[in-house]
Amino acid sequence: MEKDTFVKIAESIDNLMCTDMASRGIINHLYDAARKLTTEPLSYTVAKACLDRLEPMDKVIIVTGWIDQPLVSPDRGESDGPAGAVALARALNIACKACPIIMVDECLVESMKDVARASGFECVPVENLENSIKLNRLRTLSVVGFPRGHEAGKVFGKEALEKYQPKMCMSIERGGINEKGIIHNMLGADTGIEQAFMDYMFNDAREKGIFTVAIGDGGNELGMGNIKATVQKEVPNGFKCQCPCCSGIAVATKVDLLLASSISNWGAYGIATMMAAMSGKSIALQTPAEEMRILEASARAGFHDGMFGCLGTSVDGCPAESHVSIITLMRQVAKL
Question: Hey, is 234 helix, strand or coil?
Fold first, then answer.
């Protein structure tokens, strides 16, 4: 297909990933602001950056996992993010032959591995990733725990970049710090210092010239610093939060490319769709049946719906059938 055809497909994919199922009324503001920073649809722009920049055996760090209820369950995270992370890992692995490394809070490592296995991945040590590309026998990724706290995050982030030498760093539904160093939920509350602060690693990555990408849906995610002014203006608690810092939930951390979608997982699915279409490898995007399997595994692993406040196959208040339908529609639009 020609570029014009892919761009047209991506326009439809962007529309799908920005469907405001929960009627929050903010995604149009976030998407429009992020779109103004690029010349093409966001799903196309990110997919093209991945396909153009990555070569076989390049390592890509993907961060996710959000402990959104630290006072209630300090060792469990929400369901938006992990499924999207494995969708990105799959697309990167199949379309680019890259080596995905998913980073989450240390307490979420085993749960994240369960979600990855549901997507068909074997979880192996980082040093074994290249072998699977060379032998072309097994789909693999690594899951690495990221320590909690500001100082630990600063040290670990630097060490991780030096140790793994990633070609790209990607974030999906990962809480980001505001100008006071606080990670907030959408209600404007401080989610506590017992988080893994991954912003420092992304700031270091940009200083090193490592390409950075972020996906978010509310304005309080890592990377939303690209459209900070819009978040402050259009998102409740964006300018002034409900915690003592009074500096709002708008994040300070910036990335090279930001994608906004109504549910962060859907943003990842949009990127994977375009990577599958542009590479000619349709299996780079999961099937509807595989999506259901992933959502079921996510619930069994303990990832909860942050909007419904319960364990289950729903994500951000949308039942599993909605997410399966999004995959179905994206595959149809891209003719996969």
Answer: helix
Q: Where are the alpha helices (DSSP H) in 97-240?
A: 109-118, 129-135, 150-164, 199-207, 228-234
Both tokens assigned to 139: 């789909």
- Condensed to tens digits (0 to 9), the pLDDT of residues 185-213 reads 999 999 888 889 999 999 999 999 999 99
* Half-sphere CA count of 285, side-chain side, radius 13 A: 31
CATH superfamily of 3-333: TON_0340 (3.90.1640.20)
Provide block-wise average pLDDT over 10 residues at a time, the chain (336 residues). Answer: 94 98 93 97 98 98 92 89 98 98 98 97 97 93 97 97 98 97 94 91 98 98 98 97 96 98 98 98 98 98 90 95 98 98
Sequence-distant (6+) residues with CB within 8 A of 71 are 192
Q: Where are the domains of the chain?
A: 3-333
pLDDT at 110: 98
Q: How far apart are CA 127 and CA 124, in angstroms?
A: 8
HEC sequence for 30-78: HHHHHHCCCCCCHHHHHHHHHHHHCCCCCEEEEECCCCCCCCCCCCCCE
* 201 in Cβ contact with 161 (< 8 Å): yes
Q: Are 213 and 168 in contact (CB under 8 A)?
A: yes
